[in-house]
Amino acid sequence: GTFNLPVVSGFVAKRKEKMLSFAWMAGTWRTVNTVRATSTTPAYEDTYEYTYEMEDDGARLIAVRTGGKKFPYLTFDAFSGRWMMTFTEVIYGVLQAKEWVQSQIVFTGPLTMLGVDCELRQTLTKRSENDFHILNEERLPDNTWSMVDELMFTRI
Length: 156
Hints:
By secondary structure, the chain is mainly β. 10% of the residues lie in helices and 59% in strands. A hairpin with a 4-residue loop joins strand 2 and strand 3 (60-64).
């Protein structure tokens, strides 16, 4: 069939409205990434900067790497009613989430990390306009979740 143009045209406005719930992330963040030890690697911690920008008239959030290279990061798919978080370098895939619950949103989905397929759960917790936390967990064969790493973001 054909798209119902009046209905479809409302999706653009719905996406922009939903994206307002992530507008606070625009800016530059100091990030501390804590990675758990594995059977073959020790635990470690890295500190770096992330910059996020709203693009396409507020329709998506992008990540900007050092040197200015931009990558798609997050948008709302008004057709499915789900958030889409994309990964396009080193880690590949799309995580999806339904909705914020208080100050937290949980994304899940299959990813390929460093050539290894896995299922990831990413929990983003907004602590304030200037502070948020991300916990990444991998689903294990016994169906439990194990922490991969966590990131603490503080606005610069």
